[in-house]
Amino acid sequence: MLGEIASTSAAPAGEGWAEPLLLRAPARLFTGVIGPASPGIPPPGFLALLTAAGYWRGAWLRRAVRGAAGGHAEAALPIEPKVPTSADFDEAHARATDALDDAAAEDDTALASAEAELHDLAERFGEELGELLEVVELPPEGAADREDFATERGPLDVALATPKLAVQSDLARWIDDLASPPDDRWQAVAEVVAERQDEGLARGRQVFDLGISLQGLPEEAYALLLDLWVLGVEVLQVAACAAAAAAAAGDADAARRSALARAGLVPWLAGQEIGLRDPSLDGAGADAWPSLG
Q1: Which of 25, 56, 169, 206 is the least crowded, having the fewest Cβ atoms under 10 Å away?
Q2: End-to-end alpha carbon distance in the chain
Q3: Residue 290: its pLDDT value, please?
Q4: pTM, two decimal places
Q5: Are 50 and 26 in contact (CB under 8 A)?
Q6: DSSP string covering 168-210, please?
Q7: Is 139 helix (H, G, I), strand (E, B) or coil?
Q8: Domain parsing of the chain, residue ranges
Q9: pLDDT tens-digit profile of 187-227?
Q10: Of 19, 62, 47, residue with least CA distance to 273
Q11: Greatest CA span in the chain, whole angstroms?
């Protein structure tokens, strides 16, 4: 399904498309590229596929919130609309390609790139986690209780009730080193990560201050929304943990894994923002991405 949509930019039709397209497909892509047993080789069309998944994730959320608000998207989703252009997709594609180049680079280049990206990745992880915690704590009226759905435990450490990637045990060694640094270099990295994560967490906690409302969202849609946020938290956790290992221990393989995670994150999250802002509820903005491959 995802490959067909990425190649034709056709709007999904029928019922039951959201969970396979928006959640299962990108989770499989990320697992295959940055999972514990991954060969670290992106499949053909990797960037286009994640752009498609991200775009329709944003468009789905816009539709869901609009429907819950009785058709008044602006009242529940106060985000300035923007009709997508090919330049929007091209910019994300260029940044993702740079990350893929880092993943294929010599050790010194890969390590330098990972260290340079660490601050931003830790902050983005905190922001994504903060948003998830707010969505859990301020659910639509009548939603099932989800106590302990997500719990922050320390630097780049989170307990998730419904993980989508099998990475927690794989990341444990790096998370342990951040929690109890074995040397001065890990100590310095842990301090930076904790500071930037806290900054991001505080910003993510303000998501509803923008006026966004989930009231009226059906339970099924709310559950999917939470799972989509969980996947974002996990991918950012992999990217940031691997960058921390690169910066603290000079682990070039970890640096390349972080770069691969970033390469997937960029089009996925950029596509989401484009879809979220696209005012055409039929998803016509997907026609703007012919240059992606």
Answers
A1: 169
A2: 16
A3: 42
A4: 0.89
A5: yes
A6: HHHHHHHHHHHHS-SSHHHHHHHHHHHHHHHHHHHHHTTGGGG
A7: coil
A8: 2-288
A9: 999 999 999 999 999 999 998 777 777 888 889 999 999 99
A10: 62
A11: 56
